[in-house]
Amino acid sequence: MVKVYNLYLTWRELDKALRPFEGPKRHWLYGNAHEFLEERSDLDIMVRHAEQYPYSYPIWLGNFFAGLAVCHPEYAKAVLSRQDPKDAFSHYFITPWIGKGLLVLSGQKWFHHRRLLTPGFHYDVLKPYVTLMSDCVTIMLDKWERLIPDENPVELFHHVSLMTLDTIMKCAFSSHSSCQLDSESPYIKAVYELSRLVDHRFYFIPYHNDLIFHLSPHGYRFRKALKTAHEHTDKVIKERKQSLKNEMELEKIQKKRHLDFLDILLCAKDENGQGLCDEDLRAEVDTFMFEGHDTTASGISWTLYCLAKYPDYQEKCREEIRDVLGERTTVEWEDLSKLPFTTMCIKESMRLYPPVPEIARELKEPITFCDGRSLPKGINIFLSIYAINRCSSIWDDPEVFDPLRFSPENSFKRNSHAFLPFSAGGRNCIGQNFAMNEMKVAVALTLQRFELRPDPKREPKIVSQLVLRSLNGIYINLKKL
User: Can you tell me which residues the record assigns to a coiled coil (predicted)?
Assistant: First the structure.
């Protein structure tokens, strides 16, 4: 009886909090959950509701879990200008892998970690990465060239995600990764397995129960992959600690090679001389591995897909790239700022296909929005970046691919929170410059070598699985130039 009464109180508090916000009709038992089972894409549902309820609307998953879906820049600005933590539920299943790093931390500990990690993304650190990015992209393109004689379309996401993983390993950890040529590496297989299993657990409701998941075959595979991944991370940290101890000073290392993310992480100290403990170090390394390869792989894959669909824009990018690179097959730091139209195409691709289509926050304090409506603390906010990016009241012809939306004059006129590929505010993506640099390098070198054409037989089926993917892959045809 006590549990039943507590559930009733939960329902009553949620119902009272969300009552001022008009939204789709909910089933007496399922809430709005049945909609997501009946239709092909959760994202299509969010866009349809956003057109009907242009600022926000309640979403009920059953009668005892609900939140406010936000689909307007002004509402997004109100949420992201605060320091509310990310909601615990959406990151619960991934925390055993990435630990409590920057992605899931909140409060003073988040602020402490963010301050210690920020120097790792200074442009002086990012500058030498561009050559390494070029090397990793070239390995991928060489593989594609060997596939061309088969005259079969190439599935982008698999190849690109291996490339971005290779880039992370080489840039951030100075690891001599060969994952693009040897995807059978135990660590690489473990990272792939963990990504798949976390996503599967999130969408398979019975696995939300820890005991059921633990006893399942998927739970066993998860623990096995987790052990492999953590042992690898611990080994990398231990070896680098020993190396730094032998070198004595960071300046001596810098004379031999560029500093990487792990060097800065290990040597970071606050004003009290306090660094990160071993547990926190592993959490930040695993977080960077997770966040730094799949999201960027999504951004690159969808950009190449868009350019394949729109050959006129593809050719305009290619002309710009040829003007900048000439005969060079490696991108340099100075080149990145000389690709404005290519950058506009990347941004327009991320508008239509945002790598992270939705983010969530849990209110730690009450909030009042621009129209005067309020929410109490404790309510979950689901911020639909995908819906904001396709809102007809913000974007003219939102389904049309138009890179000129991101020309300087058009960007200046737009709401500051209408385009949020890396979130915004204090909790924005710390690695966004790293990611944008990598996307520019990948697109530039790909268009320099290949003509891209869509595969009309395999239109992608968009799905949100931690990052934006396609259920049936992202296929394009390649022609060597």
Answer: none
